[in-house]
Amino acid sequence: MNHIQLENISKIYNANRTQAQRALALLAEGMDSIEVKEQTGYSVGLYDINLAIKAGELHCIMGLSGSGKSTLIRHINRLIDPTDGKIWVDTTINAKNPAHTDSTVRVKGATTDSQPTAPTPDPHKAMAENEKSASAINILALNDKALQQYRQQSVSMVFQHFGLVPHMTVIQNVAYGLRVRQMSVSERHEIARHWLNEVGLPNLEHSYPDELSGGMQQRVGLARALATDNPILLMDEAFSALDPLIRAQLQDQLLELQERLNKTIVFITHDIDEAVKVGQRISILNGGRLVQTGTPNELRHHPADDYVAQFMCAKS
Ligand SMILES: Nc1ncnc2c1ncn2[C@@H]1O[C@H](COP(=O)(O)OP(=O)(O)OP(=O)(O)O)[C@@H](O)[C@H]1O
To answer: Given ligand 1 and candidates 67, 240, 274, 285, which is best to mutate, with the most ligand atoms within 8 Å of its CB?
Structure first.
């Protein structure tokens, strides 16, 4: 079952509608993002991305610097809105059991469009559309209140540079995302304590972020994201700032947590070894285009082009 589905998503930065359409027309003719930038002055973030992320999968997004990874992940919590396309999310999916959907947790104020879209000659697109859950909503159609609710109840993010609030203690940082829930401080802190335990930091609740190592700070960041119990976890180069040994430990911990939690995780990395280790499937971006999605084995044995093959060869 698909949890998140990007349908024909394109993003042209700093261009109005007409300007963006010009850039999109050049991309449709096959021009690459560097040429489009040279010819029009506009940066291509993404072009015509069709991607289905399954419920409960750990899906890596890979690519060189500037290929569009951050642009893609930021669409999923709508930190960025696309120039074109739709983003479908099944907000009824429950993380602990992704197969189970609960209609009571639907984001309100959302439009639902379960009608199949027009037939398309692209087989990948057709397959993705057929799999779209009937209860998926186009998150671009959410009004402000529904978007706020979507962000609070469906999606959490772990950042590369941790994003902890320096003047708050560890436990206050972890409990921060729960402040909008109707809970007492002691209830919030109890949940935060549980998640600090889960990430292996049981005795540091009264410390401040700058008293912790980078690895510990990122464990706090992870605990904060998990404490909200949201089914979708977005991780933007979350382990890239860490030393190799600590990074490997956090990768192991993430895999161990994922075994139990069954989140839908979108994990950005530019490191193929990390992608192969943690990703059930990997999507490879190049110049804002999605080149290939597959399991590590599929990418290794059937690379779509030289770019993918070079990534897979570079794996240590
Ligand atoms: N705010 C912005 N304004 C203009 N162009 C942008 C903006 N953000 C990203 N871009 C451009 O969009 C393209 C994709 O950038 P993005 O940051 O998504 O790539 P990335 O793969 O995450 O790169 P990195 O690994 O370096 O973070 C790049 O050409 C970048 O210059």
So the answer is: 67
Q: Which atom of ligand 1 is nearest to the CA of 45?
A: 12
2-154+230-314: in CATH 3.50.50.60: no
Beginning with the edge strand found earlier in the chain, give each strand of the sheet holding 281-286 in spatial order: 155-158, 232-236, 264-269, 58-62, 281-286, 289-294
Distance, in Å, from the CA atom of 5 to the CA atom of 87, rounded to the nearest integer, reads: 6
Show pLDDT as tens, one digit a residue, over the chain (316 residues): 899 999 999 999 999 999 999 999 999 999 999 999 999 999 999 999 999 999 999 999 999 999 999 999 999 999 999 999 999 999 998 755 555 554 434 454 544 443 333 333 444 444 444 567 778 999 999 999 999 999 999 999 999 888 899 999 999 999 998 987 888 999 999 999 999 999 999 889 999 999 999 999 999 999 999 999 999 999 999 999 889 999 999 999 999 999 999 999 999 999 999 999 999 999 999 999 999 999 999 999 999 999 999 988 877 6
Q: Rounded to whole angstroms, how far apart are CA atoms 109 and 107? A: 7
Calculate how far, in angstroms, residue 64's C-alpha sits from the geometric centre of ligand 1: 11
ipTM entry: 0.98
Domain edges within the chain: 2-154+230-314, 158-226
